[in-house]
Amino acid sequence: MIPFLLHFSGCLFVAAVFSFALVVIPNIRKQKRLHLPLASSNSRHNERIGNHEEEEEQEILAGVKDPFDVVRPEDIVDGRPLDESNFWRKVRLIKVIMLATLCMLIIDHSVSLGYTFMTYPTSAVRSVLPIILHLTFASYLVFLVGSNIAISEIEEHWPIVVHVAALTTLSVVVQCVSMLIPDDGTIKISFSPSTVLSFGRKFMVQLAKRKTDEDEEDETKFFWYTSLILTTIVWALSISIPRGPERYFPPERVYTIKSIEHAAKERGELRDDQGLDDPAFLSTRKVSANVCGLVASSVWGVLMFSYTTAVVMLGYTAASLEIADLPILPASMRSTYIFSHMRRLLRSSSESSGRTRSQFTIRVPFAGFLARRFPSLQERFPNMSQGRTFAPFKFNVAKHSPTQLLLQLIKANKAVLALEVGLAASSALVFYTPAYFFKRLIIFLENDPRRGNGNESLTEPQSQGWAWVYCAGLFGTTAAMYILTGQLWSISTTVVQLKFKIQLNTMLFAKTLVRKNIPGNSSSESEEKTEDAKAKSDKPDLATHDRMSTDGETDTQVGTTNGTTTSATVVANERDGTAKETVKKSDEEEFSSKAQVMTLMTTDVDRVADFSWHLFSLVDSPIEIVIGGYFLYTLLGISAFWGLAASLLFIPVNHWASKVVVKAQDDLMKARDERVALMNEILGGIRMLKFMAWERSFEKRVLKVRDKELSHQWRNYVIETLFNATWQFSPIVTTVIAFWHYTVIRAIPLTPSIAFTALTVFTELRYALGVLPETFINVLQSWVSLRRIAKYLSTQEISSVQPLHEQNSTIALNSATITWPHERVGSALTTGTSTPAISGSSTNTPRRRFVLIDLTLNFPQGGLSLICGKLGSGKTLLLLALLGEADILTGQLICPRSPPDAVAEFMQISEDDEWIVPNMCAYVPQVAWLQNASIKENILFNLPFNEERYQATLEACALVADLAILEDGDDSEIGERGVNLSGGQKARVSLARAVYSRASVLLLDDVLSAVDAHTAQHLFDKCLKGPLLQGRTVVLVSHHIQLVAPRANYVVALERGKLLYQGGAQKFMESVWTGAVNRGDNSRTPMTYIWIYCLITMLGLVMFTLRFFVLYRGSIHASDLLHKKLLKSVLFAPIRFHDTTNRGRLLNRFGKDFEGIDSSLADNFGRSVFNLAAVVTTIATVSFVGGWPFFLSFLILAIFYFEVARVYGQTARDMRRLDSVSRSPLYSIYNEAITGVAILRAFGASSKFLRDMLRCVDTNSS
């Protein structure tokens, strides 16, 4: 009989029972719950769509619809299946062949069973039982395949295919192993009641040499070989069945029209004069599969990543790989679906206040049986029998803490995280099996008499077949380990990491759209004093100069970054000698700079996302250490523990180093924030900087901040190197002490089988122990970034906006005291009202913060209202208060506001609809905010094109002459923030956007100041008092009193935060105007052979440490030189370069790219050099010992790897390029949203911008 056949057959039977419990029983329960069959292969997606629409309808009826719910039904489907009927016909054919083969397998086992009973009636039960078990196993496979033939639903088809593939894989492996093991009685397996389940009586099964007739064995082996062949056929068929048909998803829903057109032109499908809507192109356009091949891949394809072959070969063969050539991600990996799921989790957690109750819920199979068998479990976990779940861990978590954010990320990704942890644990369990077979092979060679070194104490040597067993085991376990490791890396880096990035980025972006704009440690008064300091200083300050606008109200310019405020304050403090005074910033002030928010969305998000591949190191390293320690105990006995005990001395170092690492990382991130903020200011005002010849001055300022950043980076490198050196010293001490105790103290000879195997295990343990410090460092860095993100997400938000039909059209203030947004108790975030009532200390105005006091105003509807006053009187603050962007300390303010989804909701309009929508608002800031798009796109602002209204808008805003000068007219790309236009042109394009809008309320902040007197007169007559604004409420801030006031319906005059006049225009013109002198302010801010081995390893440790010191020092030097060259090139580039270069792209170079050069390039380059040196040394050593056969094998492998690397390298370079290219628009939209968040909220374009951002995320993720 074949050795161990009974045991292996039992394993197959148990696997079948387990599969039955996982697949068949739940499916039966599901069928009982179904009332109507679903015909579509997209049933689960249809169910998702139905659930989504039903939830949305319920939210609308309840009046709590989330305006940021931008998911559409098409976003939650993978795509349209292509040639679906033909696909299922081919799959059914494969399943029929599998079923026929399995029937042949049943016939084989039946004939074998009948032949054994008829020919050898006295045969032992153990000869018959394996056949019966195999017959049962094959019958179960027939049941699975047979019941699955007619199924055309992916959700029912794919799990059965995976189970059949897993079961047949197990069957092929156990049959091969059982046939490969020699039947020489070397191994005896005993089972006793202490090791197996007792069924009421004791039994012993012992395997020894076979004493029965050899004829029975030879005759029955034929049936087992036939069984193996048939099972292999079924296995090969099962792993080749695709999951589903190929799918097509409209690329315009993911990629931009320009990228699709560019890719089509590169492929020759589209001429230069054609567009995607050209009828000739549409008639010849082919609909081909463009969704990621994973949705149509087989089990073999998933394990071997064959679904990526098409993209890799396309990148190798194509002249240039474009973004639109890449496959589209499946629905579960698209940003809209991920964001929607994460936002629902955040909304559910935000309903509670204070500390929240968190728990880990575990699903329990056979929960009802366990509850009846063990009543105490039912008492401890009441939900066990009903919900089949229990929560073993419950704890309280502070709201808005990083711990809560981490738990929310885990909850949102629990399935893939559980899979990652399971694969990490499995790979750790398999990790030392090659070392076991390596040990057994060396022992066999030591005892082999044919080699002249056999062990004379052995009465009978092992069969030579065992050498093949050990070699097969070494190969098989190594292959299994690498398959598991490949899947582990794939899931952690392409699934978990991607989901983390999308979830965090979308959460931060959505938060930015509703976050209250709180300036830093400055106020309007302090900025006025900063202007005085500027006048007394000879040192140029771009931030201060940029803020000198016509109205002078710096932090009132919501269209610009608040980061300039902080920078200006620091400069002012340096000038007046108060820089030594430090003030602890609040969480709100920590993120007052746009560059700091950009750092959150780039560097911090990437560091948290990197936790996905640090996670499996935290799982598999401890398991490897435990298993490796036990393996060493079997080799060295108690000596292994002597060695391992020495490593415990290094554990306290971890606690101390953790604090150092966190502090160093915090300092580095702050320095990086400061540099990026300064670069953002420079790029924002590059035109003024070059006009004033301030390039050298600002170059020195940037280099000073850069030197500070590099000093913190060097400090980080030193700490990391010393930390790694300490942990590299730990396994050396472990090995030396273990061998010393084994050979010297215990006086046991160290044989090659023990020494080499122990060194192999120690080497693997060195990796497990060595990877922990780096993992701890990275995890701590991720925690620092997660804490920063959680702080930002916990900052205050503006009040929610009612639906348009529920708002009051009145614009009025009643005894309202208004100030700039600041952190305070009882805000709209906590009270949930648009006009929160503040009482007690919460109403106290922060020291030296500008306030508008006791305003009672009533703006007339449908007319023109003027707000005037001198510099710093609070005109823009009043306008922003009407937009909900300021704090109401006391009193009441009523003003309609556009909901966040207003633009998205009114993008389509029928002929019967009125263009003007009541209670919608539009806002024109004092400094024009424009998108990096054409003039026409900026004016339309995602609204439908109405040619008559558009032309009227151009004429009213005096843009016709300007467009005639431009070569492409209104299709001209104006660059980011309109850098290609003059100040007056930018102001008029910004005004035209508001005029063309569907808003009934227009809030205009000094739109006349950037134009000459003639143009101002035209704008007033043809626009402000023209037909396009007739019947619309206009509130205008202006200094052109003589022009505007006589024809205004209502005038408000302000002086130093107080109401000087409110009423009609005639009485105002008759009154006397009194001015106030602009005052300044000073702000204040702040570790024979053992010795040889020991010497070699210690020398290696010293060299390891020194090489990293040299490498890191060189990296810092190279990074410094590279940054200086780039900075000089950008600062001294001509204006034309800055006009045609996207600002987000430059910020990407100075931000994310230099963060990678500073933090990652040295490690990656060092590891490449060290691995190359290790490969050359290994090849030279093995070739010297083994001779030319080993060298020839190396050459063959080298040629193979070179060809693979050539194909991969080309595609990898294209992917790197596309990643950088697709990231720049993402950074640009971050920049536009952060800069113009007030405009977006005023127009109700927040949800539309969120949707555009999600499209950019999908493009970059692909």
Strand content: 5-15%
Number of helices: 45
DSSP, total strands = 13
Structural category is: alpha/beta
Q: Work out the helicity level.
A: 55-70%
Terminus-to-terminus distance: 55 Å
Strand order of the largest sheet: 9-10-11-7-12-13
Categorize the overall geometry.
Answer: globular
Query: Taking Cα atoms only, what radius of gyration do you get, to the nearest Å?
Result: 37 Å
Which blocks of ≥5 consecutive residues have pLDDT under 50? 34-45, 56-63, 189-216, 521-589, 825-847, 1073-1087
Largest sheet: 6 strands, mixed
Mean pLDDT figure: 76
Task: Describe the secondary structure blueprint for this structure.
Elements: H1 5-33, H2 43-62, E1 80-81, H3 84-119, H4 125-148, H5 154-180, H6 214-238, E2 247-248, H7 257-266, H8 279-284, H9 299-304, H10 309-317, H11 335-350, E3 355-363, H12 367-373, H13 375-380, H14 383-386, E4 389-398, H15 402-412, H16 414-431, H17 433-446, H18 465-514, H19 524-536, H20 542-547, H21 563-576, H22 587-590, H23 594-609, H24 611-636, H25 638-647, H26 651-684, H27 686-691, H28 695-745, H29 752-793, E5 811-819, H30 828-831, E6 851-859, E7 864-869, H31 875-882, E8 887-894, H32 902-905, E9 917-924, H33 935-940, H34 947-956, H35 960-965, H36 983-996, E10 999-1005, H37 1013-1024, E11 1033-1037, H38 1041-1044, E12 1050-1055, E13 1058-1063, H39 1065-1070, H40 1090-1131, H41 1135-1140, H42 1143-1186, H43 1188-1235, H44 1237-1243, H45 1246-1261
Parallel strand pairs: 7-11, 7-12, 9-10, 10-11
Antiparallel strand pairs: 1-2, 3-4, 5-6, 5-8, 12-13
Helix pairs in contact: 1-4, 1-5, 3-4, 3-6, 4-5, 5-6, 10-43, 11-15, 11-18, 15-29, 16-18, 16-24, 17-18, 17-29, 18-23, 18-24, 18-45, 19-21, 23-26, 23-29, 23-43, 24-25, 24-29, 25-28, 26-28, 26-29, 26-42, 28-29, 28-40, 40-42, 42-43, 43-45
